[in-house]
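ok so i was messing around last nite and threw this chain in just to see what happens. nothing serious, just curious
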Amino acid sequence: MIGGIFEVIMLLCFAAAWPASIMKAYRARTALGTSLAFMLIIETGYVCGMLNKIVNNDISYVLAFYVFDFALVMIAIALYFRNRGLDAKRAAAE
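result:
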């Protein structure tokens, strides 16, 4: 039980930075300075965390926090591709 609480705190700390990153990417409208590789590595870590919970039959409220964090990074990845498209349109217009 106490281990789950510490794991949730860790996941919340990781999740705390993503809303600011998402808003910055949304407003910037450019993919410059954004690392897709970094975000994919983070997503891989969350998938491994979720699989660990499932494989070890430790399905609890903690899994919801992994899903929440995964969703935040997925939004950032979607914005990366949107912004990359906007970058391409700007480059074609020049």
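not much to say yet. The chain has one domain: 2-93.
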